[in-house]
Design goal:
CATH architecture of the largest domain: Irregular
Helix content: 40-55%
CATH superfamily of the largest domain: IHF-like DNA-binding proteins
Strand content: 25-35%
Oligomer: single chain
Strand order of the largest sheet: 1-2-5
CATH topology of the largest domain: HU Protein, Chain A
Radius of gyration: 18 Å
Order of helices and strands: HHEEEEEH
Shape: elongated
Number of helices: 3
CATH class of the largest domain: Few Secondary Structures
């Protein structure tokens, strides 16, 4: 599912316009980003938790030449689904 399909789904479930559904989706996604920036974690009960993760600098290999290269430290986002949701997938 991509963002357009998500907007269409929200639109049909809320019986609203596509513009209103897109605004709703955008507000939710922006709120998750803001929560991660400010608090480092966003939890939605029954759905899951997003967390900010730090990746340490490391040595990797250039896939074309095989030469070692330094990969800089970086920040990324991880997601862990709620147990009930994960169990429903299995």
């Amino acid at each position: 599912m991509n963002k357009r399909e998500l907007v269409d789904s929200v639109c049909s479930h809320l019986e609203t316009t596509k513009a209103a559904a897109e605004e709703t989706v955008n507000v939710v996604l922006k709120s998750i980003q803001q929560g991660l920036s400010e608090h480092g974690q966003v939890s939605v009960a029954g759905f899951g938790t997003w967390t900010v993760r730090q990746r340490a600098a490391r040595t990797g290999r250039n896939p074309q030449t095989g030469e070692p290269m330094e990969i800089k430290a970086s920040t990324s986002v991880g997601f862990k689904p709620a147990k009930a949701w994960k169990d429903s997938l299995n």
